[in-house]
């Protein structure tokens, strides 16, 4: 019998909006039976050194990564709904260009987050920015932390409801933040020696196949290296569709669970990513 071996190349830690410390992930990944894992925190590589050290101690192959939020309006036509996240895999965590980008994104958050808290206060919600910062307990403060405070204080029954009612796009307290262009994200990842991948294509324009294909074509022109074919939001038919897309545009495949610890109900390894994807990416990264 062939034993199938898996990896997970999309994981968040408490350095962004996950709940597990970066240094705890190697033990959890080994416990989940994974043969390799990546740390891909939103807009920061701050957790990479601790995660790498623990992975080395555990003898588990580790990929230093990041997940950059970019503007989904790839054709300058207005405002497509949905999300464009670009994963960087095998990045040098201390690359100077990537550090500049992280600084810019931190500034964007520092402007956006207090504005959202102000809007909540004007809606009658009793919340302070200090409570949000305490919930974050890391260097990246994001909407999930605001949502967490709203749940803790009884203003929403779940993180999901807090997004729908308040902090999601279309929510009453939503404020958009300054975003990178896709080119800027891809170039910074390449400057740091990494491979750039379009994360969870199903979240782009609601997963509309025609719009996703347009985006992949445009991102390929910008130098993207891969598509995240396997993801916890992708069903088997989606995986097959994105594999076909990757092949059509000469791109590599990557995949991961998008684990956030207890902040999301997704388990480590949930995407069932074959270890071969990791090996192919390793070869491409050099
Ligand atoms: P931010 O980077 O601060 O804008 O927050 C974005 C993060 O919030 C995403 O990467 C997800 O982890 C999380 N998120 C976005 N939409 C939702 C939602 N509807 N329910 C729960 N979490 C969400
Ligand atoms: Zn997140
Ligand atoms: Fe994402
Ligand atoms: Fe993610």
Heteromolecules bound: adenosine monophosphate, zinc ion, fe (iii) ion
Gyration radius, to the nearest Å? 18 Å
Major β-sheet annotation: 8 strands, mixed
The geometry reads as globular
Q: List the quaternary state of the chains.
A: single chain
Give the SSE string: EHEHEEHHHHHEHEHEEH
Query: Any low-confidence stretches, pLDDT <50, length ≥5?
Result: none
- Percentage of residues in DSSP E strands: 5-15%
Separation of the first and last Cα atoms? 32 Å
Fraction in helix: 40-55%
Structural class of the helix and strand makeup?
alpha/beta
- Quick one: how many beta strands? 8
**Strand order across the largest sheet:** 7-6-5-4-3-2-1-8
Structure description:
This protein has 286 residues and is an alpha/beta fold. The chain contains ten helices and eight strands. α1 (25-31) packs across α2 (48-58), α4 packs across α5 and α5 crosses α6. The site of one fe (iii) ion has 4 residues, from loops. Zinc ion (ZN) binds at residues 12, 17, 42, 144, 260.
């Amino acid at each position: 019998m062939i034993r199938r071996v898996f990896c997970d190349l999309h994981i968040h830690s408490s350095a962004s909006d996950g709940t597990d410390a970066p240094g705890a992930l190697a033990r959890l990944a080994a416990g989940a039976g994974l043969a390799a894992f990546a740390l891909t925190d939103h807009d920061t590589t701050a957790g990479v050194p601790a995660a790498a050290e623990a992975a080395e101690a555990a003898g588990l192959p580790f990929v230093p990564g990041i997940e950059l939020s970019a503007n989904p309006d790839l054709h300058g036509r207005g405002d497509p709904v949905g999300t464009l996240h670009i994963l960087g895999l095998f990045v040098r965590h201390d690359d100077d260009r990537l550090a500049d980008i992280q600084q810019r994104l931190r500034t964007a958050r520092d402007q956006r987050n207090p504005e959202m808290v102000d809007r909540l206060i004007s809606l009658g919600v009793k919340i302070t920015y200090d409570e949000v910062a305490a919930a974050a307990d890391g260097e990246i403060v994001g909407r999930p932390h605001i949502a967490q405070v709203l749940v803790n204080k009884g203003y929403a029954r779940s993180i999901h409801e807090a997004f729908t009612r308040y902090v999601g796009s279309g929510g009453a307290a939503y404020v958009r933040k300054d975003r990178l262009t896709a080119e800027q994200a891809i170039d910074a990842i390449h400057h740091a020696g990494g491979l750039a991948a379009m994360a969870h294509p199903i979240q782009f324009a609601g997963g509309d196949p025609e719009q996703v294909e347009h985006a992949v074509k445009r991102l390929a022109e910008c130098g993207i290296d891969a598509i995240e074919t396997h993801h916890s939001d992708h069903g088997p038919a989606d995986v097959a569709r994105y594999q076909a897309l990757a092949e059509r545009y000469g791109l590599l495949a990557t995949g991961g669970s998008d684990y956030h610890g207890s902040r999301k109900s997704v388990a480590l390894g949930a995407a069932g990513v074959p270890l071969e994807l990791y090996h192919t990416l390793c070869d491409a990264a050099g």
